[in-house]
Write a structure and sequence with these properties.
By secondary structure, this protein is α+β, with helices and mostly antiparallel strands. 40% of the residues lie in helices and 12% in strands. It is globular, with a radius of gyration of 19 Å. The two termini are 21 Å apart. 28% of the residues are buried.
């Protein structure tokens, strides 16, 4: 179930979106659904349930919570699984140009070749790696520590889709950049999220667009975290209440404020 921390960004966007509409601008807001990734697959295996059932349940609960706190629904809500072929096409373009390469376990983007990588983190690639950097440690054939998987080869009992490199599934960073460019076009106005998404997720989205030679977001906005006693609210710390429980126990308008 969603936590109040996860509900922070929709509230921030709500204020900005309503202001822009009030100011007379034509606003199109897209918020995608990641309906296939490592966490979903693990939960499916742990609970012995189809992954589709899990994603449908969480999407329903999410929008019920957003409706309760008065957040306008997005204009478009694309699902990652509806864009797999476009993702395959984009990855193939990057492989053909030499910006990406094939390994036994997937297709990786060559990060050191991306101009301006680290823009959103305000650090150079070397500085980011010195501080921990990209923690995607899978892939023994990776050419550089920061290279990330755009396509992951299929493993037993995991959902997969066909590709020129064999059955597999897209990486999270690739899902989002493809949907953004398709629905909002090159050089769209604003991309946002929690500050924890700036690196590596948003940086890796931007990197793929740069490698394609396509203008990506013109502006970026990252909101801060919800804190409890001075610490970031997180599931790992256990210092959270689910948004659904909060709404059930209190007036939703209190959280919205």
């Amino acid at each position: 179930p969603p936590t109040p921390g996860r509900g922070r960004f929709p509230l921030v966007v709500r204020v900005l979106r309503r202001y822009l509409i009030w100011a007379g601008l034509d606003v199109t807001y897209v918020s995608n659904i990641t309906d296939i990734d490592d966490k979903i697959i693990r939960r499916s295996q742990d609970e012995g349930r189809p992954w589709q059932e899990i994603t449908e349940e969480f999407e329903r609960v999410w929008f019920e919570a957003m409706d309760a706190i008065g957040v306008l629904r997005p204009d478009q809500v694309p699902h990652a699984t509806g864009y797999v072929q476009q993702m395959v096409d984009m990855i193939q373009e990057l492989v053909t140009s030499g910006a990406a390469y094939l390994t036994d376990d997937g297709v990786y983007l060559s990060v050191p070749d991306v101009d301006g990588y680290g823009l959103l983190a305000h650090q150079s690639l070397d500085e980011m790696l010195a501080g921990g950097g990209e923690r995607e440690l899978v892939g023994e054939q990776k050419r550089h520590q920061a290279d990330f998987a755009m396509w992951k080869m299929a493993k037993p009992d995991e959902p997969s889709w066909p590709s020129p490199w064999g059955p597999g599934r897209p990486g999270w960073h690739t899902e989002c950049v493809v949907m953004s460019l398709d629905l909002l076009g090159d050089g769209f106005d604003l991309h946002g999220g929690g500050m924890d998404l700036a690196f590596p997720h948003h940086e890796n989205e931007r990197a793929q667009a740069v490698a394609l030679g396509r203008p990506f977001a013109r502006r970026w906005a990252h909101n801060g975290f919800v804190e409890v006693a001075g610490e970031k609210m997180s599931k790992s710390l256990g210092n959270f209440t689910t948004l659904t429980d909060l709404i059930a126990q209190h007036d939703p308008r209190a959280y919205r404020l």
